[in-house]
Design a protein that fits this description.
CATH topology of the largest domain: Chitinase A, domain 3
Structural class: alpha+beta
Number of domains: 5
Helix content: 40-55%
Radius of gyration: 37 Å
Largest sheet: 4 strands, antiparallel
Number of strands: 17
CATH architecture of the largest domain: Roll
Strand content: 15-25%
Length: 640
């Protein structure tokens, strides 16, 4: 099919025009777009449509958050499922009903609340200048990049604060009594003394002697369990900044030019280590008090000039800076702009030689006396010193630029020259690599391997690739990486003849029948023990808790703690599947240690949070019940 498209592009364009243009003429541009209205929104709340674009944006943000949290362990297929998409639609509906309720109740936020929220935002806090004020120009630039003005962002923040009032009020009313917290904590930390008796599958394997007829019957009923997976032997190319950089070996002249053009990268800014004495005199201080503060600073300066070696002692006794006074005024090493004293402070500090003391320096905080205790001048490392670093920086820059310049050309070439990857390999200086892969990710490969990308695997095993041996399209697998492959050899999934897998069939039959025998005998043994209360055959007692299983499987631990504590000793049986059957004798309950007050408080808070979440969910459900909510079909997972 794709061959036909490639070889008849003009014809296909003409057909598309014949199909689309009359449609536009009959229904008009607006009518034509409305043809897709059924899929244009995912739900509506009180007449307000939640559009597909809103859904896509929210879903992308969710996936991006998951990718940033999971890193190399991230698998997009885990999130791109019908269930997660339905959950996202429901989340958007909940947001909408809460928004409608916020407006109905006329909730808002004061200017002061908005101002406090803005100042507590870590991103905005990072825009503070040395004097403590916000860099307004950078703030506007940051918002402009997001398509907003400061006024628009203020309103968004106001709306966010208002919309949080309802859930905040509900959560603040959640309460858990100490008695309940105590009881649940003691239950969660309860310890039980148990003994175990195992009936292992391996102990019954020798008793299973299946006939050839039984093996044949099992094989006939479970053929697909013995099928070999389909595989494809492929050639493939990877285009990324790394592969582009690896294919281009720079000369020393290239590296030297890069060094000269970017010499600031290899420059270490000057630093000074200084101590200071601060005499408080803020801007709003009266002129008379300021004069007294300056007079005091001059008196202290005279002491320092007379005894510069006693600067630390004088600072500890007289400085009004609580952060540094106890350290003799020491501010550590700093570069220009890192100390809140402003330009005047920097100018004075960086003009001093080691051991020198400044005159009085005035800032917004008051009067400073500065002593330089060490000076590290600015220095630029020579080319030879940083040659390796230059090579890495050069490769990164050239790789990124090369990828941007080559991506479209690579995409076009692997499509146009569909029967071979060699032209693309030659043009972009890439090595053709080979591999044998299956349609599912290989757990033996790193999770972030290009060969484990679901979109790429789907393209490799598509009919056009398998039957026609055409190049796949250039698959974007993220992180500025494109990959294209060509199937050289394909082996479909096949069911081997019975005789070739007879031993594997026997092993499965023996394992299943041995497990069934262990379970049957175990259940009979359990019934006997419940009558006799015997301890024969059990292991030595161990103490287990929900937080310390002592190696017991989860199913066993669950059964042990479900045993009725009022009827001890108690016996429980656990089917361990392929491992057999186990019986546990619960002898008694160990006395729980008293719950410390701080832990009890923490438990109360955690349980209250659970109640608050349940209350919030119930409240949202009630809002949805009295709202006009209509669900459209949830968007399907992205096609691979």
């Amino acid at each position: 099919m794709l061959d036909f498209f490639r070889n008849h592009q003009r014809l296909m364009m003409a057909l598309l025009i014949l199909i689309i243009v009359p449609g536009l003429g009959m229904v008009g541009i607006q009518g034509f777009s409305n043809y897709f209205d059924e899929n244009a929104y995912v739900a509506s709340v009180n007449g307000h449509k939640i559009t597909r674009a809103e859904f896509d944006s929210a879903f992308r943000q969710q996936v991006d958050r998951a990718r940033s949290m999971l890193g190399a362990q991230f698998d997009a297929k885990m999130f791109d499922t019908p269930e997660t998409r339905r959950a996202m639609v429901d989340s958007l509906v909940q947001q909408r009903v809460m928004s409608d309720e916020t407006q109905r109740l006329h909730l808002t936020a004061s200017d002061d609340a908005v101002r406090r929220a803005l100042m507590n935002d870590p991103v905005i806090s990072s825009l503070r200048k040395p004097d403590g004020t916000i860099d307004v120009d950078r703030y506007k630039q940051l918002l402009a990049m997001q398509g907003m003005t400061p006024a628009q962002y203020d309103e968004r923040m106001r709306y966010t604060i208002a919309s949080e009032q309802i859930p905040g009020s509900i959560q603040s009313t959640a309460f858990t009594s100490k008695a309940l917290a105590q009881s649940l904590t003691e239950l969660s930390e309860q310890k039980r003394d148990v003994q175990g008796l195992s009936l292992r599958t391996t102990d019954y394997a020798s008793k299973v002697q299946p006939t050839d007829a039984q093996l044949q019957a099992y094989y006939d009923a479970h053929k697909q369990e013995f099928a070999t997976p389909e595989t494809a032997s492929i050639q493939y190319l990877v285009l990324s900044p790394a592969t582009i950089a690896a294919s281009n070996k720079p000369s020393d002249a290239d590296l030297k030019k890069f060094y000269d053009d970017n010499v600031q990268r290899y420059r270490t800014e000057g630093e000074v280590r200084a101590s200071h004495i601060l005499i408080n005199a803020p801007k709003d201080m009266s002129a008379a008090d300021k004069a007294k503060a300056k007079q005091k600073a001059e008196q202290i300066l005279a002491q320092v000039k007379a005894h510069p070696d006693q600067f630390a002692q004088i600072a500890e006794k007289n400085s009004d800076d609580p952060g540094s006074a106890s350290k003799g005024g020491d501010l550590g090493y700093f570069q220009p702009g890192q100390i809140a004293g402003g330009k005047a402070f920097d100018d004075a500090a960086f003009s001093l030689k080691k051991g020198e003391v400044s005159n009085i320096v005035e800032s917004d905080f008051g009067y400073h006396i500065i002593q330089a205790t060490d000076v590290k001048p600015a220095a630029t490392k020579s080319f030879d010193e940083v040659k390796d670093a230059v090579a890495k920086d050069y490769a990164a820059q050239q790789g990124t630029k090369g990828f941007a310049d080559s991506a479209q050309g690579f995409t076009d070439l692997v499509y146009e020259k569909s029967k071979t990857l060699q032209p693309a390999a030659d043009k972009f200086k890439l090595a053709i690599q080979t591999a044998t892969i299956g349609p599912k990710p290989d757990p033996k490969l790193p999770p972030d391997s290009p060969l484990n990308n679901a979109k790429f695997l789907a393209a490799v095993f598509a009919p056009d690739s398998v039957k026609e041996h055409n190049n796949t399209q250039a698959i974007d697998i993220g992180n500025n990486t494109l990959i294209s492959a060509r199937v050289v050899d394909y082996k479909p999934s096949a069911v081997p003849a019975f005789d070739t897998v007879k031993d594997a069939v026997r092993a499965k039959v023996v394992a299943e029948q041995a497990a069934a025998m262990a379970q049957k005998e175990g259940q009979a043994k359990l019934a006997e023990l419940e009558k006799s209360k015997s301890t024969d055959g059990f292991t030595s007692p161990i103490t287990v808790s929900r937080n310390d299983a002592q190696g017991l499987p989860p199913a066993a631990l669950s059964a042990i703690f479900k045993a009725d504590a009022s009827k001890l000793p108690a016996y429980v049986g656990v089917d361990l599947g392929a491992d057999g059957y186990a019986i546990y004798r619960v002898n008694g309950i160990a006395k729980a240690a008293p719950v410390a007050a701080d832990r009890l408080t923490g438990a109360q808070q955690q349980i209250a949070q659970v109640y608050a979440q349940a209350d919030m969910e119930a409240y949202v459900d009630s809002l949805k019940a009295r709202s006009k909510v209509k669900y459209s079909q949830a968007p399907a997972p992205a096609s691979n």
